[in-house]
Amino acid sequence: MHTVTYAIGDIHGRLDLLEDLLGKVEGDAEARGVRARIVFTGDYVDRGADSRGVIERLMAGPKRSQDEFVCLRGNHDDLFVRAITLGEGLPDWAWLLYWHTVVSYGLDRQSARDSDPTLNRHAEFLAGLPLTHDDGTHLFVHAGIRPGVALDLQAEQDLLWIRHEFLDYDGPLPRRVVHGHTIIGDLPIVTANRISIDTGAFQSGILTAAVIDGPEISFLQAVGEPDRSAVVREFELRAIVHGRVASPIALQAQCDYLEGRIGLADLQQLSDV
């Protein structure tokens, strides 16, 4: 049976969008009469409301027996594992996300510090995930690769975290790279050397899958509502990272956004005041 690859970008706790998109993938594969290889490019946890549910869904595997899940590890997944296994060494912004994430496990800060079997099981699953999937034509990875470095010499730090050195490079690469990690708007980006599929599910309500069938590239999307609480937390993170204190205008804008009185563009503008 012919195999079509479906690459799904950063989920970040949006189980609702994941279930919707997987249904569309299954329907598309059935209509084509093909086997689906579903490659997830990482970042399953943090930000959205149901990181626990997302990991459980991935661990359960595909519903159709002929299909296959290939799960890669993202930088947020890596931080999640470190928080559970080491309990130290993370930046403040990562701890803020982690303490929100464990709420989806029915835990608080105190109980999450104890040995929780589900947290440990999920950390073991994520820690064992590969960083790349290479089909000979496309390389699937969370963040990208460092140009000029052979694929077998790529550093883990780059595969999980690289941005501009990769995104700004328009020259040839050993493979066309399919990646997430950097939000690029509501629509994916396709260039000669890469396919970018992180459409910011937590803030846009849009989760994207690239459909790769030989030379043919198309897309499927699950579309829902933004997670407004997750968006506001993201602005809190930016303040922590840049050592800023939010102004009264910015704090009011966050409240207005949470209540649906303003949109994301207005929140971004007012948060800079």
From TrEMBL:
SUPFAM superfamilies: Metallo-dependent phosphatases. It holds the Pfam family Metallophos. GO terms for molecular function: bis(5'-nucleosyl)-tetraphosphatase (symmetrical) activity; protein serine/threonine phosphatase activity. It comes from the Bacteria. PANTHER family: METALLOPHOSPHOESTERASE, ZINC-DEPENDENT ENDOPOLYPHOSPHATASE. Residues 6-182 form the Calcineurin-like phosphoesterase domain. One of its GO terms (cellular component) is cytoplasm. Its EC number is 3.1.3.16. The keyword Membrane does not apply. Keywords: Hydrolase. This is Serine/threonine protein phosphatase 1. GO terms for biological process: RNA decapping.
